[in-house]
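task queued by scheduler; priority normal; single chain, no ligands, no partner chains; default sampling; output format set to structure tokens
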Amino acid sequence: MSSRTVIRGGLVVTASDEIHADVLIEDGRIAALAASGTSAAEAWTAERTIDATGKYVIPGGVDAHTHMELPFGGTFASDTFETGTRAAAWGGTTTIVDFAVQSVGHSLREGLDAWHAKAEGNCAIDYGFHMIVSDVNQDTLKEMDLLVEEGVTSFKQFMAYPGVFYSDDGQILRAMQRSAENGGLIMMHAENGIAIDVLVEQALARGETDPRYHGEVRKALLEAEATHRAIKLAQVAGAPLYVVHVSAMEAVAELARARDEGLNVFGETCPQYLFLSTDNLAEPDFEGSKYVCSTPLRPKEHQAHLWKGLRTNDLQVVSTDHCPFCFVGQKELGRGDFSKIPNGLPGVENRMDLLHQAVVDGHISRRRWIEIACATPARMFGMYPKKGTIAPGADADVVIYDPHAEQIVSAETHHMNVDYSAYEGKCLTGRVETVLSRGELVITEREYTGHAGHGVYTPRSTCQYLN
């Protein structure tokens, strides 16, 4: 049985165009667009008509950096694939790419299988996986080839967290050389973890235990140094590089320099670095622990450099690094020792709205909003034009967005499984009204009408900026 939906009267916004158009959806895909009011559009018939007059019609967001159920610091991220993908849908995101974890001494396959088991049948929206590579050896390198062939085309390595995820320069180089051959993309957490651990030890010895010291020991210069080193290793290997959660102006400068040299180097930042700062980390009564993440929040002056990087395309993607831990019982593990605070913030529900506020505030254009939140992540990770745009043949992942609605962000009203909001009390202009995933209504006029298991695993091709 064919099912048809028509969305009428909205302003369709993609990374490349803005057009007043009606959208025809058939069997889960975009079938056609036609200018509103034309005879072609008027002739369409459908079982369901959605009135988008005065609203934007945008592609569903693609959040290419989430950590559902991630084990970290003796606990687990508080969002499951069920709660996290439902919250994502509420925020206008229709695809996530989460990180499967290889544990040291285990194979990539074991880690990937474990994450498939967590996600399968539980997701409200579509999902894919990156692979965290914690143990580079000959077997791992061979497995990387196999994973690329089956649609896991990106691999994350850590210059931070010695004893957990850390890879040394030799291991990083070997993985980069392999990805240069198999078409995979290395994603890098660029911080000098060995040096940071020295600074952590020294700070604690001085009695500097409050959350704000998390930001002080993870110095911007050590993010810049690691970013520079990762770029040079990638250059030696002849491999592309994607640097995750860039937070420091000095790291942006390293990326800009590499891109000016014509290197295939890409950068991602996150809403927390654009809207929050070390002022939050310094909040009294251990409230600052809510804002502990790595890379850490920086002083406010870094924000202007990140916004500029997004405008000049030295930074291409805004993802969330969504990795929530409740204040009660999880963040509190680090009372008296900031190094024991689980690292991560909730944000999968807030990204599209915060970036729309950036449009309202004049930081970016409407089309750039869609580019950095939908189209570029889809291209970067091999899902475009199936995801990230509104065009014939694309999956009907569509958001009806009310650009005039006002909202106040609060843990009282969000849908993430976490007991605080990083943006509590923030007033935003713009709000998701209706969300379709592959043509199915997941959010209907601010009501959840989706279900666990609708979301399906999405194999990916290789990075589309390298073809």
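post-processing summary
- The two ends are 38 Å apart (CA to CA).
- The chain has a mean pLDDT of 97.
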